[in-house]
Design a protein that fits this description.
The complex is a heterodimer of chains A (395) and B (98).
Chain A: E1 3-10, E2 13-20, E3 27-32, E4 37-43, E5 51-57, E6 61-67, E7 113-115, E8 121-123, E9 128-134, E10 142-147, E11 150-154, E12 162-163, E13 184-190, E14 198-203, E15 206-210, E16 218-219, E17 240-245, E18 253-257, E19 261-264, E20 272-273, E21 282-288, E22 296-301, E23 316-319, E24 327-329, E25 347-349, E26 357-360, E27 366-369, E28 377-380, E29 386-394
Antiparallel strand pairs in A: 1-2, 1-29, 2-3, 4-5, 5-6, 7-8, 9-10, 10-11, 11-12, 13-14, 14-15, 15-16, 17-18, 18-19, 19-20, 21-22, 22-23, 23-24, 25-26, 26-27, 27-28
Chain B: E1 2-5, H1 8-14, E2 20-22, H2 30-40, E3 60-64, E4 67-68, H3 80-83, E5 89-93
Parallel strand pairs in B: 1-5
Antiparallel strand pairs in B: 1-2, 3-4, 3-5
Classes of the chains: A mainly beta (395), B alpha+beta (98).
């Protein structure tokens, strides 16, 4: 019988929630890395036992953890305990937590600054890994989206990381600026039909696409309109919160922008608004049904000044028409006195026949719907604030 | 033998329970102690000093012999009591909420 494994990253550790395909009875394992901020955990589609985790701390910086047994045990892939940092020949060995921007003369020269809060130019400074995206085909290849915004790649299971500096070399870097959450690269989408194509999103720069494996990148923000920047239709500067895609229909993208829910039918070249009848179109998460590519989910948040759900009601909104026409999904969710947020990486879908939808809240609840959103049940209610939710569907 | 006290989370990362003891050749300085610490426990690289700049991370401090040595040059000799192993070199996290 199929199983599901939910990977929940929280402000104070990681939790692994498992169930059989009925998704009624859950085992809760954790906290792993207790006391650390776990920004994101994600399993490899090529090897479900391979799971990567971003462990971070304001005190101690960034750690990458890896599990090769589905989250039972973990290690830092570059630096196992008791091993020397150098080879017998004296060469430095790998360090899984080392993210160093490309400053080479060839590609690093134009990449030195971005726009800071005060409008001055500010050097890129590594803060943390927001998102880990394992390759669709190779368990040892994984991408990392980091703050300050850049994308890194490891091809040795997270031991060594190298920046794909063509992104920061795009030329618009000096116009990128941090949002309130920092200048983070938080979304990485891989195209299952084209190994050279991927999409990323940055707050607050916008969305980019590469068609050559990450060497060069194209801004794809046409159609986005943001009233909070001097030129609402600017090419760069939009605060994209998240982008989602149905793997069976790559190129049709759905975006939750700071305000506005958007869609693109041409791989991001053009966007149109599909907020429709949402009570508010501010929010962070967005996801797509595993089998119905026109069925999408968002959780409207009251406003950018009030990061909690509208009217004290936790409602997932579903559109079965690819946007514009939305219905509130409330069964099993609190409909009074609820003031939680759902952060950008905290929603996921499984691929069981009856698609499961999952999300976590800043109040520490992780909810599951085993019927595509019609009804919801809490898997856990009292975790630390949930930063990310991913799900693995296991045979 | 140099004694080093690490904060809880770094002890967990390094898989050690209590104080760490290190052989450090003279001169005994912040730099030579931390170099020896990271050589023995490579998983700590980047957690005490920034990978690129090798500067102390902002929310960590270095104490020894009831003194805050955080702003001392990393190449200044540490107190004799640390060099002799009588007193530990303490890496401590800033007290902060959250």
């Amino acid at each position: 019988m199929s199983k599901v494994r939910v990977l929940a990253g929280t402000r104070k550790g990681a939790f692994i929630l498992t169930s059989d395909g009925k998704r009624e009875n859950w085992q809760v394992d954790g906290p792993h890395f207790s006391g650390w901020e776990m920004y994101h955990l994600k399993g490899s589609p090529a090897d479900p036992n391979r799971v990567y985790a971003s462990q971070t701390s304001g005190w101690f910086g960034q750690i990458i953890q890896r599990s090769d047994d589905g989250g039972k045990t973990w290690h830092q892939p570059g630096t196992p305990p008791g091993e020397s940092t150098s080879t017998p020949e004296g060469m430095p060995k790998s360090e899984s937590n080392k993210f160093v921007y490309d400053t080479s003369a060839e590609t690093g020269k134009p990449l030195t600054t971005h726009q800071f809060y005060d409008g001055t130019q500010h050097p890129w400074e590594f803060k943390r890994v927001w998102h880990l995206e394992p390759s669709l085909t190779d368990p040892d290849t994984v991408y990392a989206g980091i703050e300050d915004a850049a994308i890194f790649k490891s091809t040795d299971g997270g031991k060594n990381w190298k920046e794909l500096s063509g992104l920061r070399g795009h030329g618009t870097g000096p116009a990128w600026q941090p949002g309130a959450g920092g200048m983070c690269l938080h979304t990485i989408l891989l195209d299952p039909s084209n190994a050279k194509r991927m999409w990323i999103a940055i707050s607050a720069a916008g969305a980019f696409r590469t068609d050559d494996g990450g060497n060069t990148w194209k801004l794809i923000n046409r159609g986005l309109r943001s009233q909070y920047i001097p030129d609402p239709n600017a090419e760069v500067g939009h605060c994209v919160h998240h982008i989602a895609m149905n793997a069976k229909r790559p190129g049709v993208l759905f975006m939750q922008k700071h305000w506005d829910v958007m869609r693109s039918d041409d791989a991001g070249d053009n966007w149109s608004e599909v907020s429709g009848n949402l009570p508010t179109d501010f929010g962070f998460v967005i996801d797509v049904h595993a089998h119905e590519p026109e069925t999408i989910y968002v959780v409207p948040i009251k406003s950018d000044g009030e990061h909690f759900v509208h009217e004290g009601k936790l409602r997932v909104y579903r559109s079965k028409t690819g946007g514009n026409e939305w219905e509130a999904l409330t069964k099993g969710l609190p409909q009074k006195d609820c003031y939680v947020n759902v952060l950008r990486d905290a929603m996921a879908v499984d691929s069981l026949d009856k698609c499961g939808v999952y999300f976590g809240t800043t109040g520490g609840q992780v909810y599951c719907s085993a019927d595509a959103g019609d009804s919801w049940n809490p898997i856990v209610r009292d975790l630390p604030a949930v930063l990310s939710v991913e799900v693995q569907t296991l045979a | 033998m140099i004694r080093v006290v690490l904060p809880f989370h770094l002890r967990t990362l390094a898989h050690v329970g209590g104080e760490v003891t290190l052989e450090v050749a003279a001169p005994v300085t912040q730099r030579t102690v931390l170099d020896a610490l990271e050589e023995r426990y490579p998983m700590l690289r980047g957690t005490i000093r920034d990978h690129g700049t090798m500067q102390r991370r902002a929310f960590l401090r270095f104490f020894a012999c009831q003194e805050d040595l955080s702003h001392e040059s990393p190449d200044n000799p540490l107190p004799e009591a640390v060099a002799s192993g009588k007193e530990p070199f303490i890496v401590i996290g800033a007290i902060a909420g959250g």
